[in-house]
């Protein structure tokens, strides 16, 4: 599933930020365009691709609308959370099909990756709810742990997407 590598690379562009004069040199819309192109190629071979395409398209539009520093700098913390929801929704939705592909290998390694992806999905759900506790509940002590978990979840998703992209059919020699 070579197109999954392009999904992973697109997510790298989305997750990383390289500021130059207030602009992100790794523009999120470009990363989402890479994800969209790869998902388009995966239609029919990856379950849930239609939903993933829609979520990625919404995330792309939102990231394009907030690309300019004058827009992104003007967002309140709750606004920043709101515009992150399409990206989080995509990450949540991506974990399921990736887990299915990993599980379909029939190997212990594939089963392990599938379990990690299922756990990762719930971590992304928690990350989507985290700002509600921080901003709405005034639990400022969660700010740093939620930020650290977000970085860990993003790195894990990219790693697991790359790992699943190289899976083959079940082969007893690949077990373990």
Q: What is the residue-mean pLDDT, rounded to a whole number?
A: 90
The DSSP helix count reads 7
Strand arrangement, major sheet: 1-2
Domains, number: 1
Number of strands: 2
Report the helical percentage. over 70%
Low-pLDDT residue spans:
169-176
- Along the chain, the helix and strand elements come as HEEHHHHHH
Q: Strand portion, in percent?
A: under 5%
- What is the terminal separation in angstroms? 21 Å
Gyration radius, to the nearest Å?
17 Å
Q: Could you give a short account of the major beta sheet? A: 2 strands, antiparallel
Task: Return the structural class.
Answer: mainly alpha
The coarse silhouette is globular
Walkthrough of the structure:
This protein is globular. Residues 169-176 have low confidence and may be disordered. The chain has one domain (3-166). The protein is built from 7 helices and 2 strands. Helix 2 (28-42) packs antiparallel against helix 3 (49-65). A two-stranded antiparallel sheet has the order 1-2. A hairpin with a 2-residue loop joins strand 1 and strand 2. With 176 residues, it is mostly helical.
